[in-house]
Design goal:
Largest sheet of chain A: 5 strands, antiparallel
Distance between the termini of chain A: 25 Å
Number of strands of chain A: 5
Oligomer: homotetramer
Order of helices and strands of chain A: EHEEEEH
Largest interface: A-D, 28 and 28 residues
Strand content of chain A: 25-35%
Helix content of chain A: 10-25%
Number of domains of chain A: 1
Number of helices of chain A: 2
CATH topology of chain A: Thiol Ester Dehydrase, Chain A
Shape of chain A: globular
Chain lengths: 144, 144, 144, 144
Amino acid sequence: MSRPTPLTRDDFPVFRSLQTRWSDNDLFGHMNNVVHYQLFDTAVNEWLIKLGLFDPHNSDIIGFVVETKCNYFSELAFPDRVAAGIRIDHLGTSSVRYGIALFREDEEIAAAQGHFIHVYVDRQTRKPKALPQNWRLELEDYLA
Amino acid sequence: MSRPTPLTRDDFPVFRSLQTRWSDNDLFGHMNNVVHYQLFDTAVNEWLIKLGLFDPHNSDIIGFVVETKCNYFSELAFPDRVAAGIRIDHLGTSSVRYGIALFREDEEIAAAQGHFIHVYVDRQTRKPKALPQNWRLELEDYLA
Amino acid sequence: MSRPTPLTRDDFPVFRSLQTRWSDNDLFGHMNNVVHYQLFDTAVNEWLIKLGLFDPHNSDIIGFVVETKCNYFSELAFPDRVAAGIRIDHLGTSSVRYGIALFREDEEIAAAQGHFIHVYVDRQTRKPKALPQNWRLELEDYLA
Amino acid sequence: MSRPTPLTRDDFPVFRSLQTRWSDNDLFGHMNNVVHYQLFDTAVNEWLIKLGLFDPHNSDIIGFVVETKCNYFSELAFPDRVAAGIRIDHLGTSSVRYGIALFREDEEIAAAQGHFIHVYVDRQTRKPKALPQNWRLELEDYLA
């Protein structure tokens, strides 16, 4: 079972600063593996909101997650601050693969990295829709 | 069923800035009532760590929660930033009642407020211990 | 700071059986105080759905939580099974106070107990609405 | 971006029945993608405890998660009951890859499927340890 090599900050064009919570630590005293995905979701959605692309309550399209993956290299724990690096791994017709890595405090080497794939669907019909042109133009700037 | 009056920022001597997460929003599009308590825990524990009183992994004493309460006045939601006001409502022999209010973005009136009571116990025996003198001296400065 | 006396199973007319999750345990090896409120929400909402009163996606009214409280008497931990006792503490015009206690496995004495108050609001306008007659008739049977 | 085919119940030798919680539903009214991993953790750890292999508080070895993945095919939502199918995808020297699928209510086709890889480490030193013989003998029966 081969494991990927940790990425570094140089591999990412944009970062979001994230807080940890008391309840993130599990029985073993470190951040539970599930919490990394809460941070992935939070980092990417905040970034899409800040870019003016996504509005959780009103956008015509919403992202349905069809795949997630994460590799864990070293421990994170409350009360660490975490930097989330974001890049676009792939832009499909109606899907986007977001690549994300989590860096502990000021470290250069990722503590964890992974991706999630959004398929964008119409908010009402929940059928896939082609990614709007303004999304495509904006996200292209962050392609890996 | 009478309801308390919302507190204001003037009622609190110290604040912590907290982030919300995508998963904090429930089906109704606002922060689920449970999340407020994650923020209470996070705000107080980070503050105790910053004061040099508490170390989650090594302190002789750890805080067991024996009571929590929260009143909700207005909605919070991801991606809001939240300010948590903290004060000491009561200092007992081995217990502390922490009063906390959550303020949305730059608002002056609390969106929610409540408290939790910690009984401090020995990390190994889990029996209550008198609050150490350095805790008492430090926390007295923040009595309501 | 006085503490209430733990209730027993005899104090409750109806029970829901609940599972714990790996992530419920915090650094101290027991269920984090926040999780109790996830169980309160789950027990009461499942019960309201089973009674045919509430439909999360389609009911005309939805419950907004305006107050929650919990007292903790003894530890719960994954993989415990938990029985949640439910009763109606108070029926208001548009509000209901649900009393809940959590019992570990087959124990008779509550490990934790508390309440939450729902104010029922119109799903669209989010303004309080009088509790419908069928809710009132059904819930009266469970008054403490 | 190719997607795997959903597995069926016939692909799994053992199942655990899991509950959903109110807070599992996100803004879009379905189970947030993060919750699937809470269910993976819960299903496998409960099963290892039931087999007598793992004790969260006392086992000599504990499992550190080094990789997780999930593909999502159809929506789950509170108050669904979920069946988690478990199998052993791979038994390494000190690691195990657990394959898991989540089935909604009585459905035969997986709503989501994935895996996580545990590297087993000494509880004290946190260095990898060879999987004990009793673990190996037991888990071999569930190899995919």
